[in-house]
Write a structure and sequence with these properties.
3-stranded antiparallel sheet; about 65% helix
C-alpha cells in the first residue's frame, strides 16, 4: 500500500514538473540561448588569456600600445568576489553561485514577458554567476583579464553581473517613475462636462 502511494506521489511530482516545463519551454529556450552564448564567450576569452599570456603578463596589439597605461589585457586571477573583494572565499562564492543560479532558473519563467529589462538583468546575472562558477570548480580561482586604469581586473562574467545589476536598478527606477505618473494622472479630478 505504501509503495503504491509513493509511486502515485512520484507520478504527481513528475507530472507537475512536466506541466511546468511545457508551459515554460519558450522562456527557457530564449534564456539558455542568450546565457549559453555569453557563457561561451566568457569561457573562450578566459581560455585565450590562460593559454597565451603568462600570469601577470600584459598584452595589446602593437598599434594600440599607446593605450597600455589606460587599458590592457592582463592575465590575473581572483579567488574572491568580483573586483578582488573577499579573497580566499572560493568555496563560499561557489555555493552562492549555485544558489543564485537555481533561484534565477526557478523564477525566470514567472517574470512577465513585458518586463524585458528584468529578464535581461536575470540572464546577465545568471551568466556571470555560472561563468565564474565554472572557473572556481575547475581552477579554484577565477581568471580575470580586462584591465582599465587602476580599476580591478575583471572578465566577461564580472561585466555581465555588473551590467545586469545596473539594468535591474534602472528598470526598477523607471518602473517606479511610470507608476507614480499613473497615480498622479489617476488622482487628478475629472473635469465636469457641460450639458
Amino acid at each position: 500500500m505504501e509503495l503504491n502511494q509513493n509511486r502515485k506521489s512520484l507520478r504527481e511530482v513528475f507530472g507537475s514538473v512536466l506541466a511546468f516545463l511545457r508551459a515554460s519551454w519558450k522562456d527557457y529556450l530564449v534564456f539558455f540561448l542568450a546565457a549559453g552564448t555569453l557563457i561561451a564567450l566568457d569561457q573562450w576569452t578566459k581560455h585565450l588569456v590562460r593559454t597565451n599570456l603568462p600570469l601577470g603578463g600584459d598584452w595589446l596589439p602593437e598599434s594600440l600600445n599607446w593605450l597600455m597605461p589606460y587599458a590592457r589585457i592582463r592575465h590575473w586571477y581572483n579567488s574572491g568576489a568580483a573586483f578582488g573583494l573577499f579573497q580566499q572565499g572560493n568555496l563560499i562564492f561557489t555555493v552562492l553561485a549555485f544558489i543564485v543560479s537555481g533561484v534565477i532558473l526557478y523564477y525566470f519563467p514567472s517574470m512577465p514577458r513585458k518586463d524585458w529589462w528584468l529578464r535581461l538583468a536575470l540572464v546577465l546575472q545568471f551568466t556571470g554567476a555560472v561563468g565564474n562558477m565554472i572557473d572556481r570548480l575547475r581552477f579554484q580561482h577565477v581568471t580575470d583579464f580586462i584591465s582599465v586604469g587602476d580599476f580591478a581586473v575583471f572578465n566577461v562574467a564580472d561585466a555581465s553581473i555588473s551590467v545586469g545589476v545596473a539594468i535591474l536598478v534602472l528598470g526598477v527606477f523607471l518602473q517606479e517613475q511610470a507608476e507614480k505618473k499613473k497615480a498622479r494622472i489617476a488622482a487628478q479630478p475629472v473635469p465636469e462636462t457641460k450639458k
